[in-house]
Specification:
heterotrimer, A mainly alpha (634), B mainly alpha (104), C mainly alpha (175), A: 634 residues, mainly alpha, two-stranded antiparallel sheet, two-stranded antiparallel ribbon, 26 helices, 4% strand, C: 175 residues, Four Helix Bundle (Hemerythrin (Met), subunit A), extended
């Protein structure tokens, strides 16, 4: 187990990378910046693995559940309530830093080859370093406000990276959309933090967790609109998490965020940033467990997101959009699994969610990186321009296939284990949600294999030029493939429950039959429709006319948002506000100024320069004074 | 002398004073303004002399004040004429309305 | 009414009428002459009061010096035959009002106060001879005016120099 300084280095090394590459990368290091960035993240990843090893395997004698590595008071409001910069290691935290640093390392390596020749190479690596620092800081934070600080930093890095190709108006619009939507959700997060801190008197996450043992804390009794204030606070915090994790209805930014470079999508919008919301809820799960009402909300929002995204993904033709909706769907899984947590029940819901987070990071990053290779090969994002690539890109083919099998939940790949836990938890909590989860996993298998067959099996659509993949690109793909295949065997649930006395639950193998069957059914339908060129997809789409067009247009949610903002908010609120500002507020100031100027101009005329006028004023003054002093002042 | 009360003579000097003031306000020519100022000064002289005569007959202060005022008025008139001549050279007129450059 | 007050009222009328004409005349030369008459009238008033010395000084300095100076300046600066422009109507009106107001106010004040003579009169006849004036002017005792005399002489010197400096004409050749 490394000491506090090494733990501190884990987030600091990428920050140093950001500073150095940001300041000196363009002029001094140029293409060497990639190596610097990668090396720093490599050391960070090694330290994270070492910390994980020490935490899980070397501390059997230590009784406490979390280790506070650093606690530095920063902004003290009053005794007990302060914003500290603290780093706390919990099992969840340790797993997260391993995931984040490993995936970041893979992306750094991959980008060495993928972004070669890019003029802003050093800037790209600087931004990647900034993002890695922010994400690591977020997961290591021990104070809720500190989490918020890093939350915003993550949002800022995402903005910078999505809008990396800033000369493309679509990229600029996408980065703005991502930032604004997540910022809007963060408003809820901030209010939630304020409510929580006010009613519990502390911002320290560990102390907040301790509160869960005393439900008769002040916040639990105060009611607001029928619900207790603390549950409002927790719901607002969930809104913040939902924004960052692209849950319905705050998901609109995620598909547009695909405008960024593909490795960025792999890092941010697959493995790390979008799971920040899941991480936040999981971290505070002890508090959430006290309020089943809020958990119901989380359950349904997660389930709706999962189902909605899966339906939309079946009709998209842009490969990155399909993967984006797939991410949204999987995060929906993680979220509704957390929503299925019941106090006093078994911990499957919690462990399943985090397990799925762990495995999803591997196979989703792998999918995105493979997509990057494919896009680079055919110079297009659209599925209709791809086909028959299994002959020309065998290595990528194998990686992609493994990842698709993992996400579909086919044993023995990693996705199978994590999905099984989630479905088990859903089954125990709410049968209806279990049914939705089952159906969605079928849809997942269907659209992923629709993608697979369209890309690798159809007739080749265009002649492409084959060139060998550089080592820096193939190594990350290989490592991630191994992870996607075998990560299911890492006993994450056991790690998570290391310090509590409960044992992770196991289900009988019979339970796994329905999900696997539905997944195979989905794969079969996809193969039937897409393996060869045919008009079957067209006929199937025509048969489901209404639903198909609805899904194709993403359920018109973007249009609804646009309508609300443009027609309602801009017209009804924005325009009058602007009018008031321009005519009344500014008008008042201008009136003040012009009145002063006019008065001054008229007084100015008194200084006429004529002697007789002055004599006149003189006389008036003396006469006035004389009368005053003789008659009035006695 | 004692048949004319002091106040009557003061009325006369007051009237002269205000005639001079009227001339100061109304006249546009600088030299005529100077003449009005001389009238004002003379009214003050009358006041001093009369006070000396009626209220303090043994003292001579009023006389001295009058002498000094006459001397000063002479000096002032001389300097004023010099200024008027200078202004005339610059503005080519001694209309007081033309000398109004010292303004806003 | 005895002839002493009658003479006084005659002289005062003369002074005031001349003064009025001096400030309202349209021709500048006539205005100067009316001023001359007014100042001579004031000298006459001094004679009536019995202050011969002051009267003499008035005639010598004011009439003989200042009015002559004014006439010289009239010659120097403009044609004397031309008529002066009439004053602005509104200004005349306001000035008349202001002057009347001031006059009435002052007269009321004078009448109110009354100017009672202070009871210090011991009955000695006043000594107004030139010799007495002269010796008190130059004495340095308690009632002496030697210091103001000296100051006045310096003032006159300064005024002389000032006049020369202000009115001197710089020849175009030497700047």
């Amino acid at each position: 187990m490394p000491n506090a300084a090494c733990i501190l280095l884990i987030p600091l090394l990428p920050l140093i990378g950001f500073a150095v590459l940001g300041l000196f990368g363009r002029k001094v290091f140029r293409s060497f910046s990639g190596v610097i960035g990668t090396a720093l993240v490599f050391v960070s990843a090694v330290l994270a693995l070492w910390a994980a090893y020490g935490f899980f395997f070397g501390r059997g004698d230590l009784p406490s559940f979390s280790v506070t590595v650093l606690d530095a008071p920063w902004l003290v409001f009053y005794k007990g309530l302060s914003i500290d910069m603290s780093i706390v290691l919990e099992p969840l935290t340790v797993i997260m830093i391993v995931v984040v640093s490993l995936v970041s390392l893979m992306v750094h390596l991959f980008s060495l080859g993928y972004m070669k020749g890019e003029p802003r190479f050093a800037t790209y690596y600087a931004f990647l370093g900034l993002f890695t620092f922010s994400m690591l800081g977020l997961v290591l934070a021990g104070n809720l406000f500190e989490t918020y600080v890093f939350w915003e930093l993550v949002g800022c890095s995402s903005y910078l990276l999505i809008g990396f190709y800033y000369d493309r108006p679509s990229a600029v619009a996408a980065s703005k959309k991502a930032f604004i939507v997540t910022r809007f959700a963060d408003l809820g997060f901030l209010i939630g933090i304020l409510i929580l801190s006010f009613h519990s008197g502390t911002l320290n996450i560990d102390d907040l967790s301790l509160l869960s043992n005393q439900p008769q804390a002040t916040g639990a009794s105060t009611l607001f609109l029928g619900f207790s204030v603390l549950s409002w606070g927790l719901a607002l915090v969930f809104i913040g998490g939902a924004g960052k994790s692209a849950l319905f209805p705050l998901h609109i930014w995620l598909p547009d965020a695909m405008e960024g470079p593909t490795p960025v999508s792999a890092l941010i919008h697959a493995a790390t940033m979008v799971v920040a919301g899941v991480y936040l809820i999981a971290r505070l799960i002890f508090l959430y467990a006290l309020y089943p009402g809020v958990l119901e909300i989380i359950l349904y929002v997660g389930a709706i997101s999962a189902l909605l995204a899966a339906i939309v993904a079946c009709t998209q033709t842009d490969i990155k959009r399909v993967l984006a909706y797939s991410t949204m769907s999987q995060i929906g899984y993680m979220m509704f699994s957390l929503g299925a947590v019941r106090p006093g029940g078994d911990p499957t819901a919690y462990t399943g969610s985090i397990f799925h987070l762990f495995t999803h990071a591997f196979f989703k990053a792998l999918l995105f990186l493979c997509a990057g290779v494919i896009i680079h090969r055919v110079h297009s994002n659209e599925m209709k321009d791809m086909g028959g690539l299994r002959k020309t890109m065998p290595f990528t083919h194998v990686c992609f296939l493994v990842a698709c099998l993992a996400i579909a939940g086919i044993p023995p790949f990693s996705g199978f284990f994590s999905k099984e836990e989630i479905l088990l938890a859903a089954f125990r909590a709410d049968k209806f949600i279990y049914a939705i989860g089952l159906f969605t996993s079928g849809l997942t298998a269907f659209y992923m294999f629709r993608l697979y067959f369209s890309v690798f099996w159809k007739k080749p659509q265009r002649a492409d030029h084959a060139h060998p993949m550089p080592l820096v690109q193939s190594i990350p793909l290989a490592l991630l493939t191994i992870g996607a295949a075998f990560a299911g065997f890492v006993p994450i649930p056991r790690f998570l429950l290391l310090f509590s006395e409960t044992e992770p639950a196991h289900a009988s193998p019979v339970f796994s039959i329905p999900p696997v069957t539905i997944a195979l059914l989905g794969i079969g339908i996809a193969a039937w429709l897409y393996k060869e060129e045919s008009d079957r997809p067209g006929r199937a789409a025509a048969a489901l006319r209404g639903l198909y067009s609805l899904a194709r247009n993403k359920f018109y949610i973007d249009e609804i948002y646009l309508f609300v903002t443009k027609k309602i908010i801009f017209h009804l609120i924005g325009r009058p506000a602007a009018w008031i500002d321009r005519h009344i507020v500014d008008g008042l100031m201008n009136a003040l100024a012009t009145t002063t100027a006019r008065i001054s101009a008229s007084i100015k005329g008194l200084q006429s320069g004529k002697v007789q006028d002055y004599a006149w004023f003189f006389f008036i003054g003396i006469a006035g004074l004389a009368i005053f002093f003789i008659y009035i002042y006695t | 002398m004692s048949q004319v009360p002091l106040t009557h003579i003061l009325f006369v000097s007051t009237a002269l004073f205000f005639i001079g003031t009227y001339g100061l306000f109304t006249r546009r020519n600088m030299i005529t303004m100077l003449m009005s100022v001389e009238l004002i000064l003379n009214s003050v002289n009358i006041n001093f002399v009369v006070f000396n005569k009626y209220l303090y007959p043994e003292a001579l202060e009023g006389v001295f004040f009058t002498l000094f005022i006459i001397a000063i008025a002479a000096a002032e008139a001389a300097v004023a004429i010099a200024i008027i001549i200078n202004l005339y050279r610059n503005f080519r007129s001694i209309d007081v309305e033309d000398a109004d450059e010292l303004k806003f | 009414m005895g002839w002493v007050p009658f003479v006084f009222y005659l002289i005062s009328a003369f002074i005031l009428v001349s003064g009025l004409l001096a400030v309202t005349s349209r021709r500048i030369f006539r205005s100067a002459i009316w001023l001359l008459f007014s100042l001579t009238g004031i000298a006459g008033l001094y004679f009536w009061l019995g202050m011969e010395f002051i009267a003499a000084v008035q005639i010598v300095v004011y009439v003989g010096g200042i009015v002559v100076l004014i006439i010289f300046s009239i010659f120097l600066t403009q044609q004397t035959g031309k008529e002066l422009p009439p004053p602005v109507r509104s200004r005349t009106l306001f000035s008349v009002l202001a002057v009347c107001f001031g006059f009435i106010l002052t007269c009321i004040l004078i009448r109110q106060y009354g100017f009672p003579p202070p009871p210090r009169y011991t009955g000695n006849p006043p000594d107004m001879s030139v010799g007495a004036i002269g010796s008190q002017l130059l004495s340095i005792s308690e009632h002496g005016y030697a210091l103001p005399f000296e100051v006045i002489s310096i003032l006159l010197l300064a005024a002389m120099i000032a006049c020369i400096v202000i009115a001197i004409k710089i020849k175009p050749g030497e700047k």
